[in-house]
Amino acid sequence: MADTLASPETAQALHLPSRAVSSTRRKSWPKKLVVTVAVAVAAVILNMPLIGALLTSVKPAADIAQGALSFPFLPTLTHFVDVLSASELPMALINSVLISLGSVVLTLLLTYPAAFAIARLSFGGSRFLQFVSSLRLMPAIFFVIPLYLLFGELGMLDTIYGMIIVNTFVQLTLALLILVAAFRDLPREIEEAAALDGCGILRVLTVISAPMLAPSIVAASLLTFLFTWSEYLFATVLTTSDATPVTVAAAKYAGSFELAWGEVSAVAVLSVLPPIILCVLLQKYLVSGLTAGAIKG
Predict the structure, then answer these.
(1) Among 35, 74, 111, 265, who pairs with 176 as Cys (CB 3.0-4.6 Å)?
(2) What parts of the sequence cross the membrane (predicted)?
(3) What's the pLDDT score for residue 63?
């Protein structure tokens, strides 16, 4: 209550003197400055490995031996040119994009109607969602050998669509939990009113519910993309060359006898660049989507 009365907007609405408003602003800016500096320092510390890799990737080979944080140096893009022109990294990046986007599309096609059925039609009973959620607690290594044998029989080893199916299977649970929470947070009366106006279930899902659940859909899509992009275990076992993602291709640069730090750092920067860009662009949707249903009584 005290904070509300002390805010500049409230003071102006109550016709308080401008001197009181300016005094409140003078008292608040040091606190904001301290918080901003603390967040900036924490961000730099937490991202120090990425910063070191970025600096190393643009250093000449002769300056890398002096340390990742050594200055000054003349920036160069030689390492990026080398890994993009004389390696399998470009194809691995394309594979990762195809696998990640395919997994997002297939995951949404499966989980969006399933979340509606669970939240609105009580599909599977009260324990069904808990059972599905428990599958994510199982270690991934538990599924590797059965999937390898199954894919070998079906001719799906080292294929893009095979990796899309695997990653969809792995990320299905998380997306389902997010969308079920979003449907439960959405007032049922909106869908009932649409049904009274003659909308079928398909129209309700696509025209009525989807726009209102957009933050949660984006959050589920973004998390599916990120986890699929960074998946390593299944990609190592189920791919060899044609469908190798960037995580497996990047690991090949760490040789047993010699480690080219410039090329390794360039590969690391290129491999994390798409997820970082997506997170920055879709951050607000991710936060609002993940908090759906968190405060509903």
Answers:
(1) 111
(2) 33-55, 92-116, 128-148, 160-183, 204-229, 264-282
(3) 74
Category of 258 on φ-ψ map: left (φ > 0), alpha (ψ -120 to 50) or beta: beta
- By the 8 A CB rule, do 246 and 89 touch? yes
Q: Is a pLDDT exceeding 80 seen at residue 171? A: yes
Residue 59's nearest CA partner among 34, 46, 78, 39 is 78
Burial class (CB in 10 A: 0-12, 13-18, 19+), 280: exposed
Give the count of beta carbons closer than 10 Å to the beta carbon of residue 24.
Answer: 17
Structurally, how many domains does the chain consist of? 2
Instruction: For residue 105, give the nearest of 155, 171, 159 by alpha carbon.
Output: 171
Per-residue pLDDT tens digits for 245-288: 998 888 877 665 567 788 888 888 888 888 888 888 887 777 76
Which CATH number goes with the domain that contains 184?
A: 1.10.3720.10
Q: How far apart are the C-alpha atoms of 162 and 159, rounded to whole Å?
A: 5
CA distance 171 to 287: 19
Res. 4: pLDDT tops 60: no
Distance CA 208, CA 210 (A): 6
Q: How many CB atoms lie within 10 A of CB 195?
A: 14
| CA gap 257, 262 in Å, rounded | 16
Region 65-92: mean pLDDT is 78
Q: How far, in Å, CA of 140 to CA of 93, rounded?
A: 23
Question: Among residues 55, 77, 99, which one ends one of the domains?
Answer: 77
* Chain centre to alpha carbon of residue 180: 19
Residue 104 lies in a domain: yes
